[in-house]
Design brief:
single chain, alpha/beta, 5-stranded mixed barrel, 9 helices, 22% strand, globular, disordered N terminus
């Protein structure tokens, strides 16, 4: 498609003006917010895809670890492989990702790396819980919105602004989606008991990190949002709709690329500090009444 613009006038491209006219003609129609079948069963099930993958890949039936981690940046994967002798999972049958397993505190843990964005994160989460996961922890890099000191630091995400698409397929429209109160309380208590410093608050989940304009960032800051990331709203909506325990942590590593030395994450690219939080929650979960009986 040829997009014609005026180099001197700064006018919008013709295709943008055409899109605006088309939008005017269909005001009120938006599939994401108009669907009303959130509580109807799905036709395409994760179990069915996993069964096909096991058959095609020759993967034996079995379960993944009870505590699994989503690691969008892949830093935790590198860390547990080099420092904790992590090995590929024998039972993870996902077509799109690999899982690495390691033992800590006498418990198996699994981590899936590089599932970036809400839709990919939830696609993996659906399959994790269909494969035996009992608690999912996401630790994702985030950009600083509120000035809470120099990065890096972690945020326990209490709720997230739904500026993405996936959450609207799981829950009716609303500005925010909250974390599960019981999981949140478990994490907050164990961080306090173990002396782990973690902020608490809201984040902004976006599908388009390179469209974070000054105007929108300022609006989010005024709303009390602490950081911007790409997965939490989708994962929390999935968790609420499916009634699965999910905890999202934001690892604030940058000031939106606008500061000298941005994206310095800490020891082992922040994996060391993130793993301490994961281990604390995993230990608390193991002794929690929320965990399903063996």
């Amino acid at each position: 498609m040829l997009i014609r613009t005026s180099e001197t006038s700064g006018e919008a491209p013709d295709v943008v003006r055409a899109a605006d006219r088309a939008a005017d003609e269909i005001v009120g129609f938006a599939p994401l917010i108009e669907r009303a079948d959130h509580f109807e069963p799905s036709v395409f099930l994760p179990q069915n895809m996993l069964n096909a993958a096991r058959r095609q890949k020759g993967i034996a039936a079995g379960t993944v670890p009870a505590v699994c981690v989503l690691d969008p940046d892949g830093d935790l994967v590198d860390h547990v492989r080099t420092r904790h002798d992590a090995r590929l999972s024998a039972h993870w049958a996902c077509y799109h990702t690999r899982m690495w397993e390691w033992n800590e505190g006498g418990r198996r843990h699994g981590v899936v790396g590089c599932a970036v964005g809400g839709s990919f994160a939830v696609l993996v989460a659906e399959q994790l819980f269909a494969s035996g996961c009992e608690l999912l922890i996401s630790v994702a890099s985030a950009g600083q919105i509120a000035e809470a000191g120099p990065p890096p630091y972690h945020i326990l995400i209490e709720r997230s602004l739904r500026d993405e698409g996936t959450s609207y397929h799981y829950l009716p429209p609303a500005a925010y989606v909250d974390a599960d109160a019981r999981v949140l309380a478990l994490a907050a208590e164990t961080f306090a008991v173990n002396g782990l410093s973690v902020l608490r608050g809201a984040t902004w989940t976006t599908d388009a990190p390179f469209r974070e304009t000054r105007e929108t960032v300022a609006r989010r800051k005024a709303d009390g949002v602490l950081a911007v990331e790409m997965e939490a709203a989708a994962l929390y909506a999935f968790a609420a709709a499916r009634e699965f325990p999910v905890l999202c942590l934001a690892h604030v590593t940058n000031q939106l690329g606008c500061a000298e030395g941005d994206f310095e994450k800490g020891v082992d690219n922040g994996a060391d500090s993130s793993l301490k939080l994961i281990s604390a929650v995993s230990s608390a979960w193991a002794g929690s009444a929320m965990r399903r009986s063996e």
